[in-house]
Amino acid sequence: MAAELPLEEREDGPRRADFDLIRELAALLDETGLSEIEIGEGPERIRVARTMTGSAIAAPVPLAPSAEPVGNDTGEAPQAVNIDSNHPGAVISPLVGVAFHAPEPGAEPFVKIGDSVSEGQTLFIVEAMKTMNPIKAPRGGRIARILIENGAPVEYGEVLLVLE
């Protein structure tokens, strides 16, 4: 996390950074899933940014619905899935926010792997700035892969799932 530290006026000497405000802003980043935030008044500004690294991770999934657990029996971590946004079945996020699989906590997800969907059907909700934005299927098809976890932050253009 990088921070540009604004300084407070002090009568007894040099100016000091407002670390309490920086901690509050860092907590706000965690709470909202944002990657950076900046506030200020006049020439004084505070900017707190988090470096996001990594890629979407998904366990290998069968192409047909199955009651068997997904994964391998060696206990190894799942392999990273690299699906380009140009993939013909890719459904990408149109905005930055937090993705949810269901309309509310504890509810059934909108879709599961193997489900058939029709054009315009809701696949996810992405919360951005306290607004719930439905992500709809651009075409009909079958859900082959879901590449994001429930409650995960997503970026603009990130592949959320793959239709076949």
Structure description:
With 164 residues, the protein is mainly beta. It has two domains: 2-49, no CATH class; 90-163, OB fold (Dihydrolipoamide Acetyltransferase, E2P), CATH 2.40.50. Helices cover 9% and strands 33% of the residues. The protein contains one helix and 13 strands, in the order E-E-E-H-E-E-E-E-E-E-E-E-E-E. It has a four-stranded antiparallel sheet with strand order 6-13-11-8, with no helix packed on it. It has a four-stranded antiparallel sheet with strand order 10-9-7-12, with no helix packed on it. Strands 1-5-4 form a three-stranded antiparallel sheet, with helices on one face. A hairpin with a 2-residue loop joins strand 4 (36-41) and strand 5 (44-49). The longest helix has 14 residues, at 19-32. The radius of gyration is 21 Å and the shape is elongated. 16% of the residues are buried. Residues 1-7 and 54-80 have low confidence and may be disordered.
